[in-house]
Amino acid sequence: MMGLTAGALAQLAQGRVVGADRALGAAVIDSREVWSGSTFFCLRGPRFDAHDFARAAIDAGASTLVVREASLAQLSPDVRDGAATLVVVDDPEKALVAAACEARRRFQGTVIGVTGSCGKTTTKDQLAAVLSTLGPTIATRGNQNNQLGVPLTLLRLEPATRFAVVEMGMNTPGEIALLARWARPSLGVVTTVGAAHLEGVGSLEEIAREKGSLLAALPADGVGFMPEAIALPWIVTRGMVARLETIGRGVGRGLRLFEARETETGCAGRVELGGARFDVTLRMPGTHNLDNALLALAVGDALGVDMGVAVSALGAMPAATLRGEVRTLASGHRVLLDCYNANPQSMRAAIESFKARAPHGLMVLGDMLELGPGALEEHAAIGRALGDFGGVVVGVGPLSKALVDAARAAGFSGERARWAPDADAAQPVVGALVAEHPWTLLKASRGMGLERVWAGLSGEGRGVH
User: Cα separation of 27 and 96, whole Å?
Assistant: First the structure.
């Protein structure tokens, strides 16, 4: 925690210390993740109060607890009287943010912010792999990209850390600008602007404005990166004072991608920089992931990474869980799990990639959530976009009924366009079809639990984590 102590945190949060002042260990907000020396922040939400788990956190090894003054009375006497150091504050969540901002203030390395409607987690992971070739690098874990996840990422900074890659998501207006104020990145990446989280934001223009707030937060000597084909670029770059670099697949100056193609184990392409060309091979299907890789390479180049070294680092990366994983059934049939997240943009990209790989395969497409009032039409548009796909599609979820109806209206027979109300109901439908198709795609928003279809096919149980 960049040398922070319990006393320093108490001062930052206008609280007090009960017990011995000590250096703060790793910040944790889930008692199940506590380990020896951890600092456990007792947060409170609509359905939980972490003060109820204070004793369990101490038993697991927490040496410091950050607790709410108003909740002291509910702690057991042994917790209150010295089982661990207590930092007593008005609001532990505000204390978490204060500690994170102080850790960032002390950090002397480089922070890179990453946001976008889709592709931000993949780009974040790719960028971390590239920058790790230069020195110690931390990156957002999993999908911890919100008002709790960003502080937790910043609290992992250490004096030896050279780079921090911080993913920033949003559900409500102003959220990315807030996260950027905390993280203070000097470089920023916007991967895409698309119809995600319309329910909370309202329009594509507002999404572009929100994503662009990361670029607007960069300092004058910073650098922003985005694809040349991004939607509404004049909105994304509004208010930006840093230098802008755009990358893409066209012919021009800077980093460019050529000859993108699917492979048996992922995808591949060639990148060109300054007249030199490099072959890029990824162990994740979908040529749109090459566009993400191009952004990571551009940032790496700006920070001094040798392009050959960076390309090798990308080639060694495995696909992240549920984000384009290729798994093989005992029968030899392959299943592409891409069901961690979905919006219209990522759904179309997945469909086009899968059509190129398996033009007569099996697509299992679940609901795209948080799209607001236009959700049914967005799903119908996906059904119409299936176009010349020669295989079978199974829609999963109430919204995806519109996808299936649109596919049938566009010429798909009832046998080639089927529907199931949820993932559990889809299991026997898919199970009866999978033997006829060497490739199956599972794509949906995380809330649909489409990984349960894989669990049913593979017999691996119900948990894919």
Answer: 8
Give Dmax over CA atoms of the chain in angstroms: 73
- Reported as a single tens digit per residue, the pLDDT across 239-296 is 999 999 999 886 555 789 999 999 988 999 999 988 899 999 999 998 999 999 999 9
Distance CA 398, CA 18 (A): 53
Cα-Cα end-to-end distance for the chain: 28
> pLDDT (tens digit, 9 = 90+) per residue, 328-376?
999 999 999 999 889 999 999 999 999 999 999 999 999 999 898 899 9
Could you say which of 3.40.50.2300, 3.40.309.10, 3.40.1190.10, 1.20.140.10 is the CATH number of the domain covering 107-315? 3.40.1190.10
Domain 6-92 CATH superfamily: MurE/MurF, N-terminal domain (3.40.1390.10)
Residues 155 and 103: beta-carbon distance below 8 Å: yes
DSSP lists the bridge partners of residue 114 as 167, 189
Domain ranges for the chain: 6-92, 107-315, 325-458
